């Protein structure tokens, strides 16, 4: 579904990710782990088109999207939840969700979003900036989901979130995986969370993939050696 070959990207003359090869199948959840600053967010920003690669290629559903605009990638079904949420604080919860519709063909917010995150229905008229951090993360994920994406990029969705909302996010990812053909790439630091939702794990260090395995073959000590400071 998504194929990345020899991908290199960075900022100005600084190369952050190098020689990244990655394949994601339909209805597969891929997790990417690594220390802070090793290129995980850069990888997602390059896939969604915020950054343009210096080398390599990105194919989505057999189409070369290496140089496509981020808006075009969104219209093709790639949803993106950035690190830090980036919701619109002065817009209401419902208005934030309506903005998410612009990426797809949906005309109205699917009620299933409220099944996933009931608090968003209760707070529909509240400004996004008035929500707690965990509620804003729920809103950011819901905003990406309302366009019914076929592929979802999630950048550290559990970072700084209270445990009960982490569990809700985990349940949503598992439900999407079990009830749809949507694929995902998930950047995450919590290995236990990763093992509960993922099919395959990549670990990045200094911009390179240094470890990869199907999730049922992952050895914790081999992963933690690349996560410890």
From TrEMBL:
<protein>
    <submittedName>
        <fullName>Urea ABC transporter ATP-binding subunit UrtE</fullName>
    </submittedName>
</protein>
<feature type="domain" description="ABC transporter">
    <location>
        <begin position="2"/>
        <end position="229"/>
    </location>
</feature>
<keyword id="KW-0547">Nucleotide-binding</keyword>
<keyword id="KW-0067">ATP-binding</keyword>
<dbReference type="InterPro" id="IPR017780">
    <property type="entry name" value="ABC_transptr_urea_ATP-bd_UrtE"/>
</dbReference>
<dbReference type="InterPro" id="IPR003593">
    <property type="entry name" value="AAA+_ATPase"/>
</dbReference>
<dbReference type="GO" id="GO:0005524">
    <property type="term" value="F:ATP binding"/>
</dbReference>
<dbReference type="GO" id="GO:0015658">
    <property type="term" value="F:branched-chain amino acid transmembrane transporter activity"/>
</dbReference>
<dbReference type="InterPro" id="IPR027417">
    <property type="entry name" value="P-loop_NTPase"/>
</dbReference>
<dbReference type="Pfam" id="PF00005">
    <property type="entry name" value="ABC_tran"/>
</dbReference>
<comment type="similarity">
    <text>Belongs to the ABC transporter superfamily.</text>
</comment>
<keyword id="KW-0029">Amino-acid transport</keyword>
<dbReference type="InterPro" id="IPR052156">
    <property type="entry name" value="BCAA_Transport_ATP-bd_LivF"/>
</dbReference>
<dbReference type="GO" id="GO:0016887">
    <property type="term" value="F:ATP hydrolysis activity"/>
</dbReference>
<dbReference type="InterPro" id="IPR003439">
    <property type="entry name" value="ABC_transporter-like_ATP-bd"/>
</dbReference>
<keyword id="KW-0813">Transport</keyword>
<dbReference type="GO" id="GO:0015807">
    <property type="term" value="P:L-amino acid transport"/>
</dbReference>
